[in-house]
Design goal:
The structure is a homotetramer. Chain A has about 450 residues and is an alpha+beta fold. Chain A folds into three domains: about 120 residues, Butyryl-Coa Dehydrogenase, subunit A, domain 1 (Orthogonal Bundle); about 110 residues, Butyryl-CoA Dehydrogenase, subunit A, domain 2, CATH 2.40.110; about 150 residues, Butyryl-CoA Dehydrogenase, subunit A, domain 3. Chain A has 15 helices and eleven strands. In chain A, β6 and β7 form a beta hairpin. The longest helix of chain A has about 35 residues. Chain A is elongated and about 110 Å long. Chain A starts with a helix and ends in a 6-residue tail after the last helix. Chains A, B, C, D: Keywords: FAD, Flavoprotein, Oxidoreductase. Chains A, B, C, D: InterPro entries: ACX4-like, Acyl-CoA_DH_CS, Acyl-CoA_Oxase/DH_mid-dom, Acyl-CoA_Oxase/DH_mid-dom_sf, AcylCo_DH-like_C, AcylCo_DH/oxidase_C, AcylCoA_DH/ox_N, AcylCoA_DH/ox_N_sf.
């Protein structure tokens, strides 16, 4: 009996701070003797670890989630006005684009009602000077490409075609008259542009192999051939067609206006990626264009390449945005989705995925940041941009793939906001030069040997 | 002058076997002096290499393409009648399924008209004995799962739900009366089955955590809860619902017949993978089932697990089929698509992708082959099947990804028969146990430690 | 007060099965109120999980570790006498080779005292018929190559040079007299052979580019040139030198005997892999060989290639062995090494590594198993063997890398039996044809296009 | 006959610019009719490609190789004096360290004669202010860590132990007297320091689990326990020992002087990585230390962690250096090594490896650049540093592995300057926190959940 009382006293000592009611509830759910047995087999370090875990998970739970800018490139590195613009664009995308984008993607249609709102942001032709354009830095433009792709890569692509490829061709290679005619309206999205380079048998970066022809007859040019994958072309007001002059074999650019009877545009069907982007298959049959609608300073493919170099950095940033959007969705999902009674973000295997995603994302961000700095410093070369395209499109594939994976089955439902990124990453991977072509561009630069054929 | 004649004589010597007309044509296209200059700078080995290349590519061009069974597992390892069945099923899929499948996938609809034709193949319930079933080997069944998924993973999944999960539950866990009632009709696809295990908050392999409840009242059971992702459920005649008996907390199985008023099935929308598979979100509200429709030999989750173990090998084989279909499409594409004037299959970077695909594909095939042998020998364990699921779903992801990559932009168009595999591989990756869950099943077996929580 | 007694009664009810002494010990180590608080916040599923974990880890702890033959290829698939031989060879390696091998590796010396013991196993020239050779299957030979490399890849390489390359050249391409003279002694390791193909500027699989020359003068041949990387050459009794006949430009083979004054052999220094293998740099300066020591049936490089095809399967098996050795060491290490008070094998991140290793290992095993079957069926082609070499050397790199990783810092100490495999895997990766060369061999076979240059 | 003359005229037209002698030489080496036949089968694009290839490879061959700073971080981003210091350190390493380092590595010995020369560079304690230290930026320090590791990771580690861990502990946690006593001499390498944290059973980043004890007795402390892996410890003048105070259970630091009889140091043998680094196994047996040699401001493990946070960025930079050294060696090798008569750098498969290496290298550089900026801005957190450690040590493994691969067999010979990097990368991968531990540090920060146990 004294034994029993001493036991009671021990019990009192042991449990005076324990919430007895909770313990009683608990005893219905777990096998207490077994728990004690198990715990007794642990050593001090293990028990400390366990206590620390309970403590730290409690303490940390209140922390706000750290978003996908782990190294504070936006907050710290941008000037105030740039940071403000970045946040304004982000807010617009979250509010106006995100809620509608999955349904448009599914239907493979374009949300035309968004165009005037995008125009209001006044970010089109961001880096150009004059013609109503803001004249901001390439770094800023890159960051905004990331912001757009973070919510939807299709919208970002639509924007890139208009602001970069189409306006850029005119800005870099047009005459003063041509710039005056087109750029102000395009900057405000009153005029929509497209960029017709790729052909059914000639990929987007295949220099010089174009088969579309241009033949000069008097003051006119006659264009013949086909263009494939031309973004925005189904509804564009002006489409820049790149064709080989039959006379001097050089590639020249032509501003083909909507309604030109020699140009037939068919919408490409059945894509599994970037389904919002309206890609046209363009057939040119004796398509007549006035000499004054030829880009006056585009004399050879080298000039076309200038446009591509300028925009390729943007594609790298788009990849970053795509990865960031997927990562952030996955992070939020895993912090709330439970398995075995715990948020899945508390499992090692899930954390491992998240950290791999974040490290790739952060590396891409710092890489593109430097790329845009090089561009702003006038040091950008083709191979710099190609390297970023290769690295970012590869790493993005890895990020979106893990984002989908941590979501299990739900990852294949569009509503969870990762499936779309998984599909779209495949398009980014291949457009504006496949991984292979861009690798060989870098490879030639570093080795001094061309290995294309 | 003598010099000139000796030159002429030399020319004659040099060119007497050359086709002069061809040379003349050629001289218009290439800069001959430069070619001679370049060739002269090569040494003997290089020139031999060049000659060998020209020779071998000529010689090899006639060879028939080697299909995706590089180690002759089908041809060599199957008995004659099995090989014949394999080829019959393949022919059916090529002829009847392949031409329609992309459009159904795009519309997210099921090709009901194919069901009677699939029935005619007489391969449903392939390994079961009696009840109209053929009683063939597990190896044969695995090979056929590969054949089906090679053309379409959705069709293969539809088949697997019917033949494996639904019929398998009844075959393994039903009473003799239940088997007599259901199996013959199901074997002929006159009755369609579904398998209701997964729940909105409980993934497909999460043992024991089921929240759907069953309460016995007299001779009836009252089911309440939700099931998600249930394949075929939108049109099934009978759906096996797994629920936890409120009395003894054990998981039991119930045959719920079409039209039961307590069961509401909603078609899941907006999937980016396996879009042909009709997944149901099932809500059970006081759903009444007769005791005689309870699976009579399903006493706990361990019995459910028997069904899953039997079918998991099939999922591994499906992954193989998905990879094989993508590889074969990619191989054919690269042998005909040209860049820089040559089939892209003649470039090192493309061959590297093809060989990586083929090596993974072949490894998967030999692994699954052995897995099915273990099954036929009665040696199969959960961890064997889980290992195959993990390996094959990971490697398949890699294969389909490369298949898409070598197709460039065309890889995102459904018509090129790879985009669909890319998307579907994501579903395979996560269903019947995610990579993480299956890894932890194997991990527990090899280390002796459970690491699920 | 009644409250206090009811609490005591509750306490008694709660704890009557608990070991009170253990609990008291425990209360000194953990913060009991906090534990109760934490546990109370868990729901039923989480608690079940926790209980299950404790239970299962207890139960499973007693299980014997499953060794690196997860799919029972050895146990099940080998005939009894083959299985016995496999186990005999394994026992020899564990007992005689394993204890000494790290020190020899470190000193870059060869354990000559092991040679008579290896001879006693009577496994040299395993597949050959006659000349004292056992005439067993290629599958058996492959399994033994795995067993040897599982303990040490250098020893396995030494054996492969003797049994495969050197004896194989004579067996396949020698005259009857030559076979009689050499094979019986070599089978018993009384005569050691080497195989001199690779040259300083010509890699191991570079067909036909050999620069070593042979010139016939009367009944003799004069050899000139250099050979690099020639395994066993520093102590071989006979070295087969492959050289190009200056007359007909064909590659021929010569048996150069130890002591020939025209042959100088220098030991290659400073390797970071396969340090036990003694590689010779051979310089041939007007080295005279009798016509009767020319391999009588080696007429061109095609004949040399026959030897390489036969042995390449063995290299794939060696890779499997290397991976298996590393995996098994890692598995054992992680089951005993503790962190945070638990064996590290009980952490998800470590299990993930182990399962990745095991799945790759098992895939390699089933692939090579089939490869050897093809060889035994007479169906083996170069591309079959090359595919296996590519797959296995790549996957092995991944396996050994993870094996080292799970060992943390200890993984770089030789005593833990993984560091050596990490280094040796690099040699396997590149010898008998790099990944690139073997990929292009397969690539040519499947595409019909040669892409070597 | 007229036909013949017209042919001759054609021949003249065709070949008037061709160097006939070269053509004649060529005709002996290649089968001209076949070449013409082959070329005739090509189309215009293919021929253009071929011509372009010949042109571009000619033109590009003269280009200087682009070194491993593809995005000009050193040239453009450093201030002049920093750039000058970077180049001075690089020159020293190239001239004094590179020529001797392979032999020391092989012998596992330390090049003591280099110490005074390193001292002369005046870069030790680079970021500290006062005590003879230069007070430069963390960015500069990171760049120099990269420069050192680019030539040898062991030397870089030796330096990091002295400048970062040992001096850093005193600088951050010592009293003013302690700083005065030690730092000036250490800055000039007159006093060598070591940092004793890791224990046989407790890895480098395992907070708080230390088992080495300290017991205060009067004005002395008695230390007992073991330390493993302690760099420089075999010859250090002062070793900082971290031990748990038996009284308050907090971790404290002690400056143990050379010759202390209670401290026994044994050199660790048989490492396969960082063989130049002399790691000590320290046994403390009633080791007495004066209270005045206790680090006066080290009150708990949190203080130790401050030192680790400061130095972890340096480890990330070391990984970058290791990758850069391997890449540059591989680039140079592939530009000169020939196969099939061409530099191997001109093959697609090799270029692909080089570009993968360079893209990873460049991403690491930009990531670490930003990391050091965060450090200089006072924003660095543990998780920032851990992310960089994880990313860089993983990517470095990939880079060195490819560097070795492109070298084929020669890649395993130390003389080609890549094998050492391959081995050393494994040490970097695991020291100062394994990938797993650092991932869980980041994981806790981003998810709010601790998953260590």
């Amino acid at each position: 009996m004294p034994n029993f009382f001493s036991s009671l006293k021990n019990a009192y000592q042991l449990f005076r701070h324990v919430d007895f009611q909770k313990l009683e509830q608990l005893s219905k759910k777990v096998d207490l003797p077994k728990v004690v047995e198990s715990f007794s087999n642990m050593d001090q370090t293990q028990l400390s670890g366990l206590m620390k875990m309970m403590g730290s998970s409690h303490k940390k739970k209140e922390l706000p989630p750290i978003e996908g800018d782990f190294y504070h490139l936006g907050e710290e590195a941008l000037k105030d006005e740039d940071r403000a613009l970045q946040l304004k664009v982000r807010a617009f995308l979250e509010k106006e684009v995100k809620p509608v984008v999955n349904q448009y993607w599914l239907k493979a249609e374009f949300p035309f009602e968004l165009i005037p709102k995008i125009a209001e942001l006044n970010i089109c032709g961001l880096t150009y000077k004059g013609y109503g354009c803001p004249g901001r830095s390439n770094l800023m433009e890159g960051m905004l490409a990331m912001e757009m792709a973070r919510v939807d890569t299709s919208i970002s692509t639509f924007f890139g075609v208009q602001s970069g490829l189409a306006m850029g061709s005119i800005y870099l290679l047009g005459s003063e008259e041509q710039k005056q005619e087109w750029l102000p309206g395009m900057q405000q999205f009153k005029i929509i542009g497209a960029f017709g380079l790729t052909e059914p048998e000639v990929g987007s970066a295949a220099a010089g192999g174009l088969t579309t022809t241009a033949k000069r007859v008097g003051n006119k040019w006659i264009l013949n051939g086909q263009k494939k994958w031309i973004g925005n072309a189904t509804f564009s007001d002006v489409t820049i067609i790149w064709a080989r002059d039959l006379e001097d074999s050089q590639v020249k650019g032509f501003l083909v206006r909507k309604g030109n009877k020699g140009m037939h545009v068919e919408k490409m069907q059945d894509k599994m990626a970037l389904r919002i982007v309206q890609n046209g298959l363009i057939t040119l049959t004796n398509c007549e264009v006035e000499e004054q609608d030829r880009l006056q300073h585009a004399d050879s493919f080298k000039d076309t390449a200038k446009v591509l170099r300028m925009t390729r950095a943007g594609v790298a940033w788009q990849a970053v945005g795509c990865a960031r959007g997927a990562y952030e969705s996955a992070l939020n999902y895993t912090r709330t989705r439970k398995q075995f009674g715990k948020p899945i973000a508390s499992f090692q295997l899930i954390q491992n995925h998240l950290v791999e995603m974040l490290s790739n994302l952060t590396a891409m961000q710092t890489l593109c940041f430097r790329l845009s700095q090089l561009q702003d410093q006038g040091l950008l070369t083709d191979e710099h941009a190609s390297l970023a395209k290769v690295f970012c499109s590869m790493r993005t594939r890895d990020v979106v793939s893990r984002a989908r994976e941590v979501m299990g089955g739900n990852g294949i439902l569009l509503e969870y906001d990762v499936a779309r990124f998984v599909a779209d990453a495949e398009a980014i991977y291949s457009y504006e030069g496949t991984k292979e072509i861009n690798s060989l561009i870098v490879g030639r630069a570093i080795t001094g040997f061309s290995a294309f054929v």
